[in-house]
Design brief:
The radius of gyration is 21 Å and the shape is globular. The protein is built from 8 helices and 18 strands.
Length: 351
């Protein structure tokens, strides 16, 4: 792999970092063509792409992405959290979107080279990390709905603080009853770029009403809880941790999978099943549902303090971060940052 180092290093950000607004000095780029396969892999200075107006990504949206993080532990070692799982999930998305598969292990090594090169960009403050965004886009310079023959893969990285402005403070969710995020047989199970564009209308309306994120319901019956815009969702009911089962329209989050394993290891009962929004609301009203939290790479874990449904706000528990939520957050982040032993072998050390 060719490595072209920048001749003009950018200044590192100082103070509080707004999520996803500052990018490191370098990026990874590779191309795909039907005759050559994946080729021309290189690390180069972060820079704009030149794409023709006819590029198929602009017209038909054939593209996927991933999100993961790198951290520095208390010894100054660079750690990533389950990075191979991200490239496995990217290949799952590729298969659904008719994008050629990548070599997962080779791509991990390419990422290691990129992280190693830009390691000085990894922030070390509490809740801070280096966010990593791998992307694949179709790039045929022709019109017509068909599977592309040419693609670009790139990886960019961004030093980030907390995903939400208020950090671990409980967020407010708005239950969306009209718009839907995904249906079974669609693309909700995959990290397809169009899923996020389709969520913007409802998210904008929720923000105008004073909420942080949308809590989506299923497309067919509009009664089963699915996920939040950037997170999978969990509820604590009578001490049992419940999360919606993966029925084909929910993204199989890597943080979700990790929290399920972690809490079961700690002795909690964790159940994956269909859960109706009415069950959640009635559980909040009866004090059976005492906690709610979301999980995702960007936010890690976000406690939920309020759920807005049918014009009324329902406060979960006492509206503060719950015991199990905090335990899950501390346990996971301590493993990620090397503070606690990694009994699951989740962390990957960049040497």
């Amino acid at each position: 792999m060719k490595i072209i180092k920048t001749q003009n290093p950018k200044p590192k950000p100082a103070g509080k970092i707004k999520f996803g607004t500052v990018f490191t000095d370098h990026m990874f780029v590779a191309k795909y063509s039907a005759d050559k396969g994946w080729h021309d892999e290189k690390i180069q200075p972060y820079q704009p792409f030149v794409l023709e107006p006819s590029s198929s990504i602009f017209h038909y949206g054939q593209g996927v992405f991933e999100g993961l993080k790198a951290y520095k532990n208390h010894l100054g070692e660079i750690m990533m959290f389950r990075p191979l799982e991200n490239f496995k999930r990217m290949n799952s998305s590729n298969e659904r979107m008719m994008i050629p598969p990548i070599d997962e292990h080779k791509m991990l090594q390419n990422l290691v080279e990129l992280v190693r090169l830009d390691q000085d960009w990894i922030p070390t403050g509490e809740g801070e990390s280096l966010y990593i965004r791998p992307v694949i886009i179709a790039n045929d310079n022709s019109l017509g709905v068909h599977t592309a023959q040419n693609y670009i893969m790139f990886i960019i990285m961004s030093p980030v603080g907390a995903y939400y402005a208020n950090g671990l403070a409980p967020v407010r969710l708005y239950v969306e009853e009209f718009y839907v995020r995904a249906a079974k047989g669609g693309t909700g199970h995959y990290k397809f770029i169009g899923n996020y564009a389709a969520s913007l209308k409802a998210s904008d309306q929720a923000e105008k009403l004073g909420y942080d994120q949308v809590l989506w319901l299923d497309a067919q019956y509009k009664k089963y809880v699915e996920e939040v815009g950037s997170m999978n969702i969990f509820f604590v009911k009578n001490g049992e941790v419940i999360t919606p089962s993966l029925e084909g329209s929910i993204l199989p989050g890597i943080t979700r999978m990790s929290i399920i394993e972690l809490l079961r290891h700690k002795g909690y009962k964790v159940t994956e099943r269909l859960i109706e929004i009415e069950e959640v609301i009635q559980g909040i009203k009866s004090d059976e549902v005492t906690e709610c939290f979301g999980t995702g790479t960007a936010a890690v874990i976000s406690p939920v303090g309020v759920i807005g449904y049918k014009g009324q706000d329902y406060t979960v528990g006492d509206g503060k971060t719950g015991k199990i939520t905090m335990e899950a957050y501390k346990s996971l982040t301590n493993i990620q940052h090397g503070i606690a032993p990694d009994v699951f072998n989740w962390t990957y050390k960049v040497k």
